Amino acid sequence: MSDDEAATAAAWAELIDTARRTAAAWAELIDTARRTAAEGLVVGTSGNVSVRVGDLVLVTPTGVPYDRLGPADTVAVDLEGRQVMGTLRPTSEIPMHLAVYRNTDARAVVHTHAVHATAVSTLVTELPLVHYMAAALGGPVRVAPYALYGSEELAGNMLRALEGRTGCLLQNHGTVTYGTGLAQAYDRTAQLEWMCRLWLTASALPGRAPSLLSPAQLDEVAERLRGYGQP
Q: How far apart are CA 61 and CA 74, in angstroms?
């Protein structure tokens, strides 16, 4: 085989591998998006999910119910936001997703309109330390100030709230979490919604206030979590 033939074969192999990884990532993205709806974290076509494959960002399309998405509906943009795959328009929250990818090591992002988390976002500027799982998100979960959905202002507010964190609340809007993959990003979303529900439940009894953890206690948990799970 000549050098040119070898180079061509290598290029084809890379294209085939990219196509395979993209198809697998899109299938997992659809499953994750459907899960957000099935588990009550979004209603209708609200919320959005993305996953990074190389320099491509696969995203849910705007205004399309997740149960109608299939393998032929793949939507992808580059890191500058230019659509490079698909005919459906990508989510309007592209600025927010790309801001996460450009400024963190994220490989997946989940954005929801979860009821309890959104309720908390209207009440406080930071979720009180009602449970030690806040350490799994990097510390006390901040609330990003309100801005119009899909705007660069919202993306900027979110980035500031995410500093040193893997999740935040968006005031009067919802949640954003990211992770090394879709499973981790989704788990962080579910944990955040659960903590918000816990705080609202504990705060509902008249004349009583929930006990809160101290920063030192949270630091102790963060250290313990470094060895959590299977090797």
A: 9
